[in-house]
Amino acid sequence: MRKLILLMFPIFLSINVVAFDYESYNKGVKAFEIADYEEAMRFWKAALPKENIFDDYSFCKASLDCNVDDLEPDANAELNFWIGYLYSKGWGTVKNYDKAIRHLRKAADVNHPQAQYFIAELGLEMIDEGIIDFDSKKERRKGYGQIAKFLSRAIENKKTPSDLRKEAEKLWNEEELWRYTSR
Length: 183
Description:
The protein contains nine helices and no strands. By secondary structure, the chain is an all-alpha fold. It has two domains: about 25-105, no CATH class; about 110-183, no CATH class.
């Protein structure tokens, strides 16, 4: 029975893995370029595969020899970044920080440098706007610690463009996020 399951596993994977819809992605990019954000959101949501328990990141987490920081952000990470960005701005959709963070986090977790930077920037913006409020110093330290984690990942990410790295370092120093790193 065990051998049968092991033999069927690759077949099961090939059935569940959804091919990326480049046509919808490209149509979304064109719509975004002309500021038709609603159309961009529609195309990008259509291109994003339904949740799949067999993604590279879940296999990587289960592997002892895998380093998440070496992952190449894939097309799905790019889609999640842009969908999260649109939700955060309310462009082409209703502004929704919860959905924005959910999509940005999916991209950031698979080493997408822009998502790592932007999720930190969005967190700071939400604090400044009073959307996030801390009841205690402990909560404040934890919240800023999470922001610091994402921003430091963007700074250390080998795939981060130099101009974005400079922006991340500037934000790091301006907000004194080094104060909230783990000790």
